[in-house]
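Table S2 (text version). Query chain:
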Amino acid sequence: MIPEGSDPVFDAEEIDSAVVRIAHQLNSDCAGGVWLLLAVMNGAVVFAADLMRRLTFAHELDSVRVSRYHGETTGGELIWHASPTASLDGANILLIDDIFDEGHTLHALHKHLVTNGAATVRSVVLLDKQHERKVEGFEPDYVGLRCPDRYVFGYGMDYEGRWRHLPEVYALLEAD
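Corresponding structure-token output:
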């Protein structure tokens, strides 16, 4: 049972179609090279796993753990919990995240990777939240689905630390 006061945004079939579409584009764009898939934990765990199984080019997997939400429904300061263990020097990196909300996390990670020697950094997100509060001049290279400006959870994203296991994406109902 999902949390009371929420409704479905994307079902499992819509999500799967988006993952397949992104994988197809990545297989074309990244063919012939070796890429480091860098999943932003914990939210990207489900998306990264589903995407990775559909990739046909050579790749390695690592993760980075950063957070801005700290159990809240609005983001705050970026806190680093775990850095990648793979060498970034000269690496071709696919930075995989669950959602592009305002873009602070992805933008900071992109800058960090470039500063630490990555040759190429491309960002991949399942969801792009539709609003005008984005970091200016930065957007993900690959987007699965556009979602409303509401707090979403499921398919790897949590609400109050739970509900990541849901195969669909839900949104909290907006307060009156």
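Notes on Table S2: The two ends are 23 Å apart (CA to CA). The CA atoms of residues 95 and 123 lie 5 Å apart.
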